[in-house]
Task: structure prediction
Amino acid sequence: MQRNEVCMNTKTVFDRLQSIDDEVQKLHNTIFALKTTDIQAYADKYEELSISAALRSERIACQLRNLVYTTTDTGKKDYLKQAAAVQGIKISFSNSVLSITMPGLLPKRKLRTNTAFLHEPLNLALQTYVTEHSIPLYKRCVVCFSQIYDQSLSLQRIRDYDNLEFKQILDTIASYVLVDDTGLFCDSYHTTELGNYDHTVIFVMKPEIFPGWLKNRKSSIKTISEIS
Result:
């Protein structure tokens, strides 16, 4: 590689790092605003700031990922495997039910933003799992989205299902284990539960299994109706 090419690469990396640093500073300012906002008196403002901080964090993560891919020997696949582990993405298959654990889902994005933060690690995790395990291709199925909220926090933060980002998650899952995710082949069910931390679990199963599975699930998990 010639010297001027090396210099050009160095400048490009520096510029990208500067851009990331600018984003980090903005994130720092938003977090400071969150710390000084009365969540009880200004709930809407707090929500707006928290979503802004989360989405900016996603952008920062994606920018740093791209920097890793282009400036180190770590391959994209190796990195995304580690990213899936850090995000707590877990996949299991037991008693004919596929279970996928993910971070808590954010509200639907009002603006076009980078969705690679979550979907790239999920995609690789699914790709790896179906390669290493025998998973059926569901011709007819029920997909259950379970939103699990930290029970130590206010119930006011629980969102309407239609305000959460489900579609792209289902599209990613469908590409590996479903014939199709239209209503002809796939029924969807949404439930809200309480737990020790915020996360989402997606269950995929055959329709005939669902009634018994749901009965057992409700008897073993604390639901909102139990404390309402």
